[in-house]
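QA checklist item 7 of 12: single-chain prediction sanity check.
[x] sequence parsed
[x] length recorded as 640
[x] structure emitted
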Amino acid sequence: MASSGSFSGSIKDGHYIVRVDWSQAQDVTNNKSTITAKVYLINDWSLSINGRTNNTITIDGTKQTFSSPSISSKGTHLLRTLTQTVNHAGDGSKSLSISVVFHIEATLSGVYYSTITASANIALDSIPRASGISMSAGTLGSAATITISRASSSFTHTITYKFGSAAGTIAAKTSETSVSWTPALALGNQIPNTTSGTATLTCTTYNGSTSIGSKSITVKLNLPASVVPTITSLTATRVDGDVPSAWGIYVQTKSKAVLSIHGAAGSYGSAIASYSITGGGFAGTSDTLTTGFLNTAGTITFTATVTDSRGRTSAAKTVSISVVSYSAPSFSSYLSQRCSSSGALTSDGTYIKASVSYSYSFCSGKNSVTRATYYRRMGATSWTNANKSFSSGTAFTFGSGNISTESTYEIKYSLTDDFTTISVIDTVSTAAVIMDFKAGGTGIAVGKVAERNHCFEVASDWFVRLNGTTYLGTSTLGGAAKPIYLNGGVPSVCSSTVGNVSTPVYMNGGTITACTPASIISGVCADYVVESGKSGIWTYRKWNSGIAECWGIYSASGVNLAASHYSGFYYSASISVSLPFTFVAAPVGTYSGGCTDYITFVTPTGQPTTTQARFWIACLDAGAKSCSVSVGMMIRGRWK
C-alpha cells in the first residue's frame, strides 16, 4: 500500500518516455480519496510536435480525455495534471488501476509512432474506519474491562449495551482504549428463568463530531451465586386434636403441627417455583405442611427451603418443637382374692382384696388418670360399679359383703386418662370347701362350691390322685391317638404297661402335667408339661424341654384406633401387656381380634420382649377414636 508513486511507458529504446506521478489525498470522514496524476513526456532525442487534444487517462475505470501542449525540444515536459475521486471499501481499503495514452503521432528515424502508453495497478493506503472492542464474560455486579482497538489516535468512541429489554451507555466519546464497566445487578430482572444471558455491546467511532462507523460484539453476563430466593421465617402451629388446648403442649401420637413458610420471595426477577418442608418423618412441597400425628417424643426440628425459577435454592430456615412422650395406660400386675370386711384373706370371704400395679403418662403434669373397679357373677352380662378407686401397688378392699361364696366372680379394673380407657379382667373363685353339692343334686365340687349342673368340679389349687385303673379317654400320647388308662397310678396305652414303677401321676383338667420319675413319661412321649396355670388374663404351660407358651385375651374400651396415620392406615398407640412370667429370650407372638365396630387388624410392635407382649391395632377409618377392643394373644418361647 502507498499514498504516492510513479510508473511509465516508452518507445524508441527509452528515448521517448511517458511517466505518471500520482498521489493520494484521504477524506477520512467520507471514506474517499482524491488521486492526483501528473503526466510527463521525457525525451532525450529531438522532437517537434504540435499540441494534442485526444490524449486519455483512466483512473479506477473512469476515463478522462486531456490535451497536451506542443513540444519542440528535448527535456521533461508536463503534459497535464489530472484528478479523480475514488471510494474506498467499507473497511477503508482501496485498490485501483491507472492507465494513460499519449498521442505522439510522430515519425522517428523513419518509423511512425502513434501513441505512448503506461499503466499500473495500485493499492492505496487504507482509510481508518470504525474501531473494534473486546470483553471477556462478565458477572453482574462485578467490574469488567472493555478493550478498544482504536483505528486512529484521533478517534473517540461511544460504547452502549443492550441486555434483554434493558439498554444504556457505558462510555460517551471516550478517548481511552480501556473502559471499566460494572453491569448492574438489576439486569438480573432480564433473566428471571436462567442464571446467565447475552449482552450486545456496540462501539461507535467518531472522527471529531462525525460518526464513521460502529462495531458490535456479544458477551455473556452471569448472575452471581449469591443471588438466591429468600425466606423470612418458618413457623409451627399446634393442632391439638384430642389434646385439651389449655395444655399448650405437643403430645406424642395425639398432636399434629402445621408448618408455614413466610416471606418466600424470588430475587432480581425470579419467581418461586417450589417449596420444601421436612422433619419428624414428614415432608411437603407447598408453603404449608400439616403433619400426621407426631409419633416421636422429644425435640423435632423442621427445615424449609424454596427453589426459584432459575433453579436456585434459598438458605434453609428451621423451627423446633418439643413433643412430650405419651403411651396409653397399662397394667403391670393385678391380684384379686376373697377377704373379710377388715381385709383379712379368707377363702369364704364376701369381700375382695385387690392389689393393682399400673403406669400412665404424666405429659408434663397435664394428664391425669381415673381408676374404677367393677365386678359381676361369672356369666352375668352387666357389671356392678364397686365405687372404688385405687393407687398403684396399694392393696384395697371392696364388695360391701356382696361377693357370694357360691359364685365365681369376674373383676374388672379400668384406667381412664384424658385419651384412653383400658381394662383388665381377673377371676375370683367360689368359697373354698371340702365338698359341696349343687342345689338339686345335679352337681358336685371338691375344694370349692359347686356351680355347674352335671359336672364334677375340682378347685384349681387342688391336686387329684387316682389309684386303680382309670380310663382317661382317647388322647394323643406317644404319637398316636389311643385310649389312655391309669393302672395302679402307672400310665398304660392300649392295656400295655409303660414303665414298671408305681409312681404318682398328677392330672390337671385331664392333662398329664408331671410324673416322677421322668422316664415313665419319656418312654411314651417326647415332651410333657411340668407346670401349667393361670395368671391374670393369661393361661400358660411350661414343658420339660424348656418350651413355654401362654395365651390370653386383652380387653379395653375407649381405645383410639386413629392415634396416628401411615401408608393409608390408622393406628392405635402401641399397647404393651405384661407376660405371666419372664422368658429367657424374646419369644414369638401372634395376635388376632380387634374391634367389631370397624374393619381392623392387629400387627406386632416388633417381637415381644421377655416380659411384655406388644402390638398395634390398625384400621381404615379415621373416626375410630373410642373403641372397645378384644385381642387374642398367643406367645411361644422358652422358659429355660
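[x] summary fact logged: Residues 474-490, 492-520 have pLDDT under 50 and may be disordered.
[ ] second reviewer sign-off
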